[in-house]
Amino acid sequence: MIKIAKNKNFRRKDSYWANTPEAKGRQLAGRKRYYEDLRTEKKAIEVKKEPPKSPFDPTYENDIIRYLEDHYYIIETKAPVVLEDWQKKRIFMPLFSLNEDAIL
Questions:
Q1: Is the confidence at residue 57, as pLDDT, over 60?
Q2: Is the full-model pTM beyond 0.70?
């Protein structure tokens, strides 16, 4: 052991490495599982619906609120977003409705 400071011992990096071929194999297998688990966590969140259609699809023409309800979901519950009538009328309609000149 190498002394760094008063009453502090330093453990060398190679003391953590496996000493036997069997232990080395287990260590590498564990490291491989760890990195595979990291990759799978970053994959897409499971959704109960089909992949979304384009917002420019004719079925959603001039209706962004219906597109939102059909394709967006809450991450924690994986349930679709459901807007109440007052939210549609008082928040989204004024934001996304077109006036007589077709301007937002």
A1: yes
A2: no
What element of type H or E holds 37?
Answer: helix 21-41
Rg (CA), the chain: 28
Q: Where are the beta strands (DSSP E) in the chain?
A: 2-5, 8-10, 73-74, 79-80
When the pLDDT of each residue in the chain is averaged and rounded to a whole number, the result is 77
Q: Which two tokens stand for residue 80?
A: 């679709």
Q: Which amino acid would we find at residue 85?
A: D
Closest to 70 in 3D by CA, of 54, 52, 85, 86 = 52
The sign one gets for the Cα dihedral 29, 30, 31, 33 is positive
Q: What is the dihedral of CA 30, 34, 36, 39, to 10 degrees?
A: -170
Q: Are residues 90 and 63 in the same domain?
A: yes
Four-CA torsion 12, 17, 19, 22, nearest 10 degrees: 170
Q: Tell me: do 36 and 65 sit in the same domain.
A: no
55 and 103 housed in the same domain: yes
